[in-house]
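FAQ: What does a ligand-bound record look like?

Like this one, built around heme C:
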Amino acid sequence: MKKIIALVGICSIIFACGGEKTESTDDTSSTSTKATEEAATVAVGSAKGEQLISQSDCLTCHKVDAKIVGPSYNDVANKYPATDENIAMLVGKIIQGGSGNWGEIPMSPHPAISTEDATEMVKYILSLKTN
Ligand code: HEC
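The answer part, i.e. the structure of the complex:
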């Protein structure tokens, strides 16, 4: 099921880019339109991230589509556009923990998770946008 959601996310990104292309008259302009979009939000979706999350303790506090102890991943993805800045901020949050963005309950720190792995996790989470 999570795979399907991730796939839908990826497809909608591809579809969005495809839509741009049909509106453009030539390849050069569609390439530049795409480059501008990528500067704002980066491509997300990570099967590796999904796997890493399922192997860690995340799912005891987070579900994709419902709040448990922490916010649902859908809510996290809806709140933060997939920019490099937000990805870096959320990677820090996974590794260092923190609180105050969703309520008083703190997110536990995960010092054993590498920046690379946490980045994959965030890319997966941010691909779960529902709005
Ligand atoms: C002990 C419960 C718990 C565990 C385990 C946990 N989280 Fe969280 N997580 C939370 C809570 C609570 C928040 C909300 C923190 C806040 O209000 O800023 C949160 C917030 C987040 C956020 C949003 C951060 C923000 O600043 O908006 C992300 C992304 C996240 N968690 C990812 C993960 C990942 C990935 C894992 C596994 C490596 C994980 N969490 C494990 C409880 C947990």
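Follow-up question: can I read anything off the structure? Yes, for example: The domain at 2-126 is CATH 1.10.760.10 (Cytochrome Bc1 Complex; Chain D, domain 2).
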